[in-house]
């Protein structure tokens, strides 16, 4: 049985992907900060739940120890930063530091902690990025800067760890609490469902294409082509 470690797994895309992988027979280690939602999800999916903050080195060590035979690391947990989203001229620098801790440093810490087993099992790393990493959206400078850093970090990881599959995926807007916080609940409600994106990500993991950055269009093309 293959094992996946998913961060930010108590709701949104993380939870939807956990459900999709569970349906495919994966064993799961799930983490998030919200204990109640996390433990409820883990109970439903017969998964291991370890609540905590991915920016905490001790928590990262606990996660790695809970998955000694790991096939897939999903760096999904992310922080949006202050809302309403401020322009760069008003972005508190402490808030930007926290964004880098959650969106860049924590994913690398998890990669470093799990690399021995990922190398041994020729596993995969899936990072969730954003079009804010490559487009100039007013107010999204802090978040987008961290996602740009995640993109480049993933790109280099793919070059350094050629036996692994490394994907950094921009899934587009999804109807999540994070998007609602950024743009309002009405606009967020019209976005794609996390479940539909999770289904494509689960197929991506099964197909295992070469490492690289995938937009929502590229993800759909890869997974649709594999079904035909």
TrEMBL record:
GO terms for cellular component: membrane. Keywords: Oxidoreductase. SUPFAM superfamilies: NAD(P)-binding Rossmann-fold domains. Gene3D superfamilies: NAD(P)-binding Rossmann-like Domain. GO terms for molecular function: oxidoreductase activity. PROSITE patterns: ADH_SHORT. It holds the Pfam family adh_short. PANTHER family: DEHYDROGENASE/REDUCTASE SDR FAMILY MEMBER 7B, DEHYDROGENASE_REDUCTASE SDR FAMILY MEMBER 7B. Belongs to the short-chain dehydrogenases/reductases (SDR) family. This is Short-chain dehydrogenase. The lineage of its organism: Bacteria, Bacillati, Actinomycetota, Actinomycetes, Streptosporangiales.
